[in-house]
Specification:
By secondary structure, the protein is of the alpha/beta class. It has 14 helices and 15 strands. Strands 7-6-5-8-11 form a five-stranded mixed sheet.
Length: 466
């Protein structure tokens, strides 16, 4: 990220990561310096996504004639990246400094540092990715569309949660879970989409066998889905592009047909996590964070609706340490996927003196560390305390972009004693570093069953019956 000057050191150092440098602290320090300089100017970012929907973020930066104006560039570069993965979009409009705008236009092009974002977003929205520079007063107006989903429990329903290491399914009759199971699978490493189709159908048939009929199917899956079409998803990373277009893009529409065209809805797993939280808490402004094979994030707004945003915060850097771990997909450092998933547990294990069996799957390695934690192993405890530190600084960063009242932690990493350790450490760090945030944001950990299969149950409630 090439942040200027010294990176801000956290007041509470993660036990196994003394070089951790939270992005949130760097941003707050930058903005404080701008305020105190007496040389600030308004600045904004507008991002357009599908159907003309546009989100706008306004802030301030050093004026162009300030001797610290160079510090604007890394701040805005990270800001644009964060907003792109929060909202999604194919067109970025930079409102304010022409110098900053030209920098963003250059870096977010297909042959520069942010080529991954440019190519990814262009592919998702099937439009050429573009950056425009305008005066601050000429920024587009926001245009949002919120969707009311979930909360339907009438009839016989199947909820399916497609994780990258295991798949979960639940059979739900009039709101009562009559069956649930978890099965290990390996979707990312299979190039034939028939594997994915067969595995999903097998799970659905198993759940269906516990009910007299199937009235609706709800699916929670990592990735980007528009009108039940698969746009981009890590589950299908091993599938060649040509096969993806032929067999994967309409996979869930094909499954819908196989089940007699019953109502079927596919939603980003993060939004389903947030929906599960809103249903559990009976409240709104919920940020759901699923710590599984990756980081899944979703948001329920003040009216209990989802936003239609991407919420793919796994790609957003939370650590600005120049030697932070690299995300294998985007190639960027310090991204959430390496801090809020089983990848974090596996990465930290050697630092905790824990030797993992390299013949095991990532899910098996996680379970081994969790078993050690249940026995009081100090190294395993430090792993989850470190993730708890990460979580606190991550929540504080996300709170700069989302209006949050509740944070719900889900996913297999939170299972067992590890989840409680993460929660306790995160609360401690928030109290020390962000007392004002602690007063308005509560972190929740659901019961053990909900941590693991809660998303599948919430997914079952997605479709309304005809």
């Amino acid at each position: 990220m090439n942040m200027p000057g010294n990176l801000v050191k956290p007041r509470i150092i993660p036990p196994l990561d003394e070089d951790f440098r939270p992005a949130v602290l760097q941003n707050h320090t930058f903005l404080d310096a701008v305020r105190k300089s007496g040389k600030e100017e308004s600045f904004g970012i507008a991002i357009e996504r599908n159907d003309g929907m546009t989100s706008v973020f306004k802030t301030f930066v050093f004026a162009e004639d300030c001797d610290r104006a160079e510090e604007n560039l890394p701040y805005v570069e990270l800001l644009v990246k964060t907003l792109l993965w929060q909202w999604g979009g194919w067109k970025v409009v930079v409102g304010g400094s022409e110098t900053i705008g030209n920098h963003i236009k250059k870096e977010y092009s297909r042959r520069r540092k942010r080529a991954f974002e440019a190519e990814f977003m262009g592919g998702v929205y099937e439009r050429p990715f573009t950056v425009e520079v305008v005066n601050f007063d000429d920024l587009p107006q926001p245009k949002e569309r919120r969707l009311s989903i979930g909360g339907h429990f009438d009839g016989c329903r199947i909820g399916f949660d497609a994780g990258a290491s295991d798949r979960k399914v639940a059979a739900v009759i009039d709101g009562e879970v009559v069956f649930s199971e978890e099965v290990v699978w390996d979707p990312k490493n299979h190039s034939d989409p028939q594997y994915h189709y067969d595995e999903i159908m097998s799970a659905l048939r198993t759940a269906a066998s516990h009910m007299l009929r199937v009235d609706a199917i709800g699916i929670s899956a990592a990735g980007i889905y528009i009108n039940n079409h698969v746009r981009v998803a890590s589950l299908f990373r091993g599938v060649p592009r040509e096969l993806f277009e032929k067999k994967v893009k309409n996979l869930f529409l094909d499954i819908k047909k196989e089940w007699g065209d019953v109502p079927l809805t596919v939603i980003h797993d993060g939004d389903v996590a947030a929906l599960a939280g809103a249903m559990t808490l009976n409240d709104t402004k919920v940020l759901g964070i699923a710590l599984g094979s990756s980081e899944g994030v979703g948001y329920i707004d003040e009216n209990g609706n989802i936003t239609g945003w991407l919420n793919e915060l796994a790609f957003v850097p939370v650590d600005l340490n120049p030697t932070a771990p690299i995300d294998e997909w985007s190639g960027d450092r310090g991204c959430g996927v390496q801090y809020f998933s089983q990848e974090a547990v596996i990465r930290l294990a050697p630092k905790a003196g824990i030797i993992l069996d390299e013949t095991q799957t990532p899910a098996e390695k996680l379970r081994y560390v969790q078993k050690l934690a249940s026995k009081g192993d100090e190294g395993a405890r430090k792993i989850f305390e470190t993730i708890g530190c990460y979580m606190a600084y991550g929540i504080a960063y996300y709170a700069d972009f989302y209006d949050i009242k509740h944070v719900l932690l889900l996913g297999r990493v939170t299972s067992g004693d590890g989840g409680n350790i993460i929660l306790e450490k995160a609360a401690e760090v928030l109290n020390v570093e962000f007392p004002n945030l602690t007063a308005r944001v509560k972190i929740h950990l659901p019961d053990e069953s909900s941590r693991r299969v809660g998303q599948a149950v919430a997914a079952a409630s997605l479709p309304a019956l005809k």
